[in-house]
Amino acid sequence: MDDAAPPLSSSSTSEWPNSADGYVLETRIGHGAFATVHKATVKTGPKAASQVAVKIIELEEFADSSLEEIRRELQMMRMCRHENVIAYHVAFPAKRQMWLVMPLLEGGSCAYVMRARASAGGFEDEGIIAYILRETAKALKYFHDNMQIHRDLKAGNILLSGDAKVYLSDFGVAAPLRD
């Protein structure tokens, strides 16, 4: 799965620490059934002081068959090269966990933005919604053009950067698209 657009992070994985000791976990910014996402700061190496998101997957919660989902998510993220698909910096095991270090997207998830806007009276400009949908559709088209299906499209898996770029994330249940 390759495209003309560069990945969100084109840096070498060797620039990023590949153990839990290389990061300071800060606030929890998301969670699911088997994983938690934290805002973190890089402690060591060329990227020291960088802010990142760390998805920590609890491996002991998974049956052996479910470990395939983790492998598939990492493989999908490694293969994808599209401006609207999130990339990861490095992934590594830590005790009974898998750590996935990704760019920190300050805009949060679409679910977060929708809740915040709803409590503030809703969206004043429908163009914002159209933009997010258009960018998400580009990511889905990229998947489909490469014979893949995401299978978990929801507001919590659409992430926004501080400069309003839109990224599709969470490929744990992605699968090959069959005719």
TrEMBL record:
Belongs to which family?
Answer: Belongs to the protein kinase superfamily. STE Ser/Thr protein kinase family. STE20 subfamily.
Keyword ATP-binding listed? The answer is yes
**Which species expresses this protein natively?**
Polarella glacialis
The UniProt annotation places ATP binding at: 55
Protein name as annotated? Protein kinase domain-containing protein
Per UniProt, residues of the Protein kinase domain are 23-179
Q: Which GO terms describe its molecular function?
A: ATP binding; protein kinase activity; protein serine/threonine kinase activator activity
**Alphabetical keyword list:** ATP-binding, Nucleotide-binding
